[in-house]
Amino acid sequence: MRVTIRAPRAEDEGAYAEAVRRSAEHIGRWNPVEPDALPDLLERQGPGLQTFLIVDLETGGLVGKVNVANIVMGRFCNGSLGYDSYLPFAGTGRMTEGMRLVLDRCFAGQPEGGLGLHRLEINVQPDNGRSIALAKRLGFRHEGFTPRMLFLQGAWRDHERFALTAEEWPGSAAVDDRG
Ligand SMILES: CC(C)(COP(=O)(O)OP(=O)(O)OC[C@H]1O[C@@H](n2cnc3c(N)ncnc32)[C@H](O)[C@@H]1OP(=O)(O)O)[C@@H](O)C(=O)NCCC(=O)NCCS
């Protein structure tokens, strides 16, 4: 294991801005990210949005960021994943390792410090091959096609929808005890 995950904090602001700026070309086309937006992201953390940073264990460098957004509990227990990886770690497999840890945390029950989710969704633009590869590598199923789903780079963009439920995630106790 080369990475760990943790919540972002105010001290990460500088390193985060540098990582996003350094990686602008790599992430920009797909997921426009504002380098100086960490304080705003920290303020928005709450029951509907939980962010994880993936950190390289050897150097402490930022490998990537994962937003678990649109979290709805009750009978849905669902969240949507958004993510980006940063240079020089992109393409080294560390993002995939970190995502596995995030999924463990998402599907773990709340008493165990997890988010207690039952279903996770990833929505990807059809020609974003690296993101589709990541979703498939993690075992996400292709569920369907959602036309004009998100407003990105000046237009409503179609997305392919992938999903995974707790029953499909190795090691997770399937969530069947919420009455
Ligand atoms: C999508 C994204 C997060 C994927 O991240 P990544 O950095 O490619 O993720 P990883 O490094 O874990 O990917 C593994 C790749 O590294 C390679 N790799 C190299 N060394 C590896 C190792 N030791 N172990 C595993 N994989 C390794 C794998 O072969 C794989 O390449 P492949 O997909 O060509 O087969 C990244 O491309 C990104 O930030 N894109 C822009 C933003 C974006 O699209 N966000 C998602 C919107 S839906």
Describe, in plain words, how this protein is organized in 3D:
This protein has 179 residues and is α+β, with helices and mostly antiparallel strands. The chain has a single domain (3-168), classed as 3-Layer(aba) Sandwich (Aminopeptidase), CATH 3.40.630. 25% of the residues lie in helices and 33% in strands. It is built from five helices and seven strands, in the order βαααβββαβαββ. It has helices at 13-22, 24-28, 38-43, 94-107, 129-137, and strands at 3-6, 50-56, 62-72, 78-85, 119-124, 141-152, 155-165. The chain has a seven-stranded mixed β-sheet, sandwiched between helices. The termini are far apart. Coenzyme A (COA) is lined by residues 27, 30-31, 83-85, 90-96, 124, 128, 130-131, 133-134.
